[in-house]
């Protein structure tokens, strides 16, 4: 549905000679119906990237394809037409203060030449969808931040887009409003069959709603993929950002060996502990870490302190790896190496 191939965006440097490379050779693919995230620190190129997807910024080089159409090859008038298949949700809502909630939702339809009766019907339908039917006559100043973003989402859906682009859509909201907006985005994606590309710097947002993600740094993709695969991959910067591994010093100073394991639905912590304790007779204590719900599954990174007959530990590590568990020995009584 969305495909960027070797996209580069260069801006002239402000106030001096030279140039600024905002996006540097990015390639990514988002399948139809997928909820994908683009995550990274401030200045990593995230917001420029989303503006390249709908060609609010034209790439300096590379290609942008949406729904089978190479947008980067189209003239401006064709781009404006193609852009109607994409809705956009912004960090600061961008609502018109002079218009009611219904009037804001109607606005893009009015610009598209849709008749008044159809505009009103569509706005009422969408405000009901976002649970704001009773606030149709309210102006933005009368709405909370979460309600404003719901109106903005309804407006983005007015033209029946296939793709919804969200640029830091929850960054201006409190935690309760963030949860509500993410639940809404997940629901409208499912009900309307949308493809969603979400730009954020918040890892909690990615964990809550995304099927896949890419991690940007200085305009480049440094890691990415389906979250279910990323979280069980060795040496993954994105996995480290989503579920930081417990530091080895969390279990230091108490003797024994320290082993870091990644647990999943397929290899939950109960199975790992049963293997180490019940089958291999080792004494095991959880020294740190957590287990969370990510992309609809349970994933976690645990730091285990193993005592007892450490001569068995090397075999235990290999046994866990053979069972598909990502395991690393970080402080050893015997050398067991690292990796899977």
From TrEMBL:
Residues 2-243 form the ABC transporter domain. GO terms for molecular function: ATP binding; ATP hydrolysis activity. SMART domains: AAA (SM00382), NIL (SM00930). Keywords: Amino-acid transport, ATP-binding, Cell membrane, Membrane, Nucleotide-binding, Translocase, Transport. One of its GO terms (biological process) is amino acid transport. InterPro entries: AAA+_ATPase (IPR003593), ABC_transporter-like_ATP-bd (IPR003439), ABC_transporter-like_CS (IPR017871), ACT-like_dom_sf (IPR045865), MetN_ABC_transporter-like (IPR050086), NIL_domain (IPR018449), P-loop_NTPase (IPR027417). Gene3D superfamilies: 3.30.70.260, P-loop containing nucleotide triphosphate hydrolases (3.40.50.300). This is D-methionine transport system ATP-binding protein.
